[in-house]
Design brief:
- The protein is globular.
- By secondary structure, the protein is of the alpha/beta class.
- The strands form two sheets. The chain has a six-stranded parallel beta sheet with strand order 1-8-5-4-2-3, sandwiched between helices. The chain has a two-stranded antiparallel ribbon with strand order 6-7.
- It folds into two domains: about 170 residues, Rossmann fold (3-Layer(aba) Sandwich); about 200 residues, Dehydroquinate synthase-like, alpha domain, CATH 1.20.1090.
- Helix content is about 50%, strand content about 10%.
- The structure holds zinc ion.
- The site of zinc ion has 5 residues, from helix 5 and helix 9.
Length: about 400
């Protein structure tokens, strides 16, 4: 038995934020961070809520990679304030925080680490969740996962519950328009990797496939436009939609080894997530194609590659990803991210052991052992061809 989980409602297109004027309720808690607050979006959200006669409070303490302490603080504020709507506003970190704060607000008896697919949380007795992304990449608005950092042990808790999928998602292209080009590129590549990894994943299904393939087509067409011209509202809208579709794709299938390896590499060397997984993608395509050439060939043909054999399609697809990355000025190997060989090799064993235990490695079409994972990291460092 399979399940496709998605938000109940996705409101999208220009003026989508005005949907807030129509919701019913008494009090809303807007959960965001300082950067998004400075852009004026939290105030705009509050203003629309007031038009719906909903009182709004803003919690703007969410940091990038939110900590357990922040979640506990936000949940305490929610319990004192007693909202019937929680609104996650921002990038993946802010939306992840909103999900976890919501869980602890409704369930004061549990700790953050207790959020799990097998725990019945019984949410929606006190409040419902709206997610409003301001970047086009993480897909958190469409998934049942939340990543919270345990700062005492310096580990990331990858938590999930189907109950955490937001009730309403609002995709207004005016919000991502504020992203600088570098962030547009990083987050856009993240969305592409979500879709590509979902499409070839062992857990893929017909519903996730449909979301993934459409998102891939949109990203190849519109990411360069959004990067070159931040005010291109059509490109912003398309990228915003594609990021949510990618979230629906990998949220209902799984990501793959560009993610498990990317999480390890990004956390060790403090490199933005999208840049890391994007850099790894062409190497991962070549490696995984030994088990999934037909699937990659379908992607290649969907974006207009006219090669004859599946193997040629795979080769050209990897080249097309690199060409896209060049258009948005992203590095094609780890060496070009400013890492030096000695520091990298000093961490290599640790990177490998962290990557291969991840569920994202296990559901990849081809599952790497330690030796293969090490070779992949090394190719990705030096920009070498993957031929194994
Ligand atoms: Zn990602």
């Amino acid at each position: 038995m399979w399940e496709f989980t998605s938000p109940k409602k996705i409101v999208f297109g220009e003026e989508a934020l005005e949907y807030l004027k129509e919701i019913e309720g008494k009090k809303a808690l807007v959960i965001t961070g300082k950067t998004v607050r400075k852009l004026g979006f939290a105030e705009k959200v509050s203003k629309y809520l007031e038009e719906a006669r909903i009182q709004a409070e803003i919690f703007d303490e969410v940091e990038p990679e939110p900590s357990i302490e922040t979640i506990v603080e936000g949940a305490k504020l929610a319990r004192d304030y007693n909202p019937d709507w929680l609104i996650g506003l921002g990038g993946g970190s802010n939306m992840d925080a909103a999900k976890a704060i919501w869980a602890l607000y409704e369930r004061p008896d549990i700790e953050v680490g207790a959020i799990s697919p097998v725990e019945k949380l019984g949410l929606r007795k006190k409040a419902h969740l709206i997610c409003i992304p301001t970047t086009s990449g993480s897909g958190s608005e469409a998934t049942w996962a939340t990543i919270i950092t345990d700062s005492s042990s310096k580990t990331k808790l990858e938590l999930a519950s189907k109950e955490l999928v937001p009730d309403i998602v609002i995709l207004d292209p005016q919000l991502p328009k504020s992203m600088p080009p570098r962030l547009t590129a990083d987050t856009g590549m993240d969305a592409l990797v979500h879709s590509m990894e979902a499409y070839v994943n062992q857990w893929r299904n017909d519903f996730s496939d449909a979301m993934a393939i459409k998102a891939i087509k949109i990203i190849f067409e519109y990411l360069p436009r959004a990067y070159e011209n931040p005010d291109d509202i059509e490109a912003r809208e398309k990228m915003h939609i594609a990021a949510t579709m990618s979230g629906l794709a990998f949220g209902n299938a799984q990501a793959g080894i560009a993610h498990s390896m990317g999480h390890a590499l990004g956390a060790t060397f403090k490199i933005p997530h999208g840049r890391t997984v994007g850099m790894l993608l062409p190497y991962v395509i070549k490696y995984s194609a030994k088990e999934a050439a037909g699937r990659y060939a379908e992607i290649a043909r969907a974006i207009g590659i006219e090669a004859v054999t599946d193997e040629e399609c795979v080769e050209e697809l990897a080249q097309a990803v690199r060409a896209l990355m060049k258009k948005v000025d992203l590095p094609l190997c780890a060496k070009d991210m400013g890492l030096d060989w000695e520091t990298f090799t000093g961490e290599l064993d640790e990177l490998v052991s962290r990557a291969i235990v991840s569920s994202e490695s296990i559901t990849n079409p081809r599952v790497p052992d330690e030796e293969e994972c090490k070779k992949l990291f090394t190719c990705a460092f030096n920009g070498e061809e993957v031929d194994f």
